[in-house]
Amino acid sequence: MHIPSSMLQGGICPVTALVSVGGVLTAGYLGVKAKLKPTATRFGAVTGLIFAGQMMNFPIMDGTSGHLLGGVLAASLLGVPFGVLAIALVVAIQSLVFADGGVAVLGANIFNMAIVGAGVGGVLREMLRKSKLGQYGSTAAAAWLSVVLASLVVSAELAIAGEISFWRVLPAMVGTHALIGIGEAIITVGCLVCLSERSESKAAMGRYGTALLTAVVVALLLSPLASGWPDGLEWVAARHDFLHEGAPAFVGVLPDYVFPGLGEGVVATGLAGLTGVAICFFAAWLLGRALQSRNVKVGVERE
Question: Of 1.10.10.10, 2.40.70.10, 1.10.1760.20, 3.40.190.10, which CATH number belongs to 13-243+258-288?
Answer without folding.
Answer: 1.10.1760.20
